[in-house]
Amino acid sequence: MDFALQALKTFAALGVVVAVLLGASFALKRWGHRLTKGSDKAWIHVVERRYLGPKHSLLLVRVAEETLLLGLSPQGLSFLASVDAADTSPLNRAEPKEDRS
Questions:
Q1: What per-residue string of b and e applies to 55-87 under the rule 16 or more CB within 10 Å gives b?
Q2: Where do the H-state alpha helices sit in the chain?
Q3: What total number of domains does the chain contain?
Q4: Is residue 68 in some structural domain?
Q5: 79 to 2, 40, 68: CA distances (angstroms)
Q6: Pick from 4, 6, 49, 91: CA 20 to 30 A from residue 98's CA?
Q7: Can you give the pLDDT at residue 17?
Q8: Where are any strands of DSSP class E within 1-101?
Q9: Are both 67 and 24 inside the same structural domain?
Q10: pTM assigned to the model
Q11: What tens digit of pLDDT does each residue of 45-73 get?
C-alpha cells in the first residue's frame, strides 16, 4: 500500500509540472509578443513585412536613418535595395493612377 501511495504522489507532482508548463506555453503564445516589442530608441525597426509565399517575404527595415528593402527566403536574407525616406511615406504608397490620355 505504501508503494501505491508513493506512486500516486509522484504522478500527481508530474501532472502539476506538466500543467504549469502547458500554462506557461499558452501564456507566452498569447501575450509573449508584448515582451519582444522594441523600444522607440532601438536602431532597427521593421517598417513593413509582405509575405510572397509560405517561406518567402519582403521586409522594409529602417536601420538608424536608412531604409532598406530585404528579401527573406529559406536560403537566407538578401539585400534588394536602399529606399529613400520620402518613398516610404503613406502618401507615396498609394497605387499608381492610370493615365487616361
A1: eeeebbbbeeeebbbbbbeeeeeeeeeebeeee
A2: 2-31
A3: 2
A4: yes
A5: 67, 24, 8
A6: 49
A7: 97
A8: 44-53, 56-63, 66-73, 76-83
A9: no
A10: 0.48
A11: 888 999 999 999 999 999 888 999 999 99
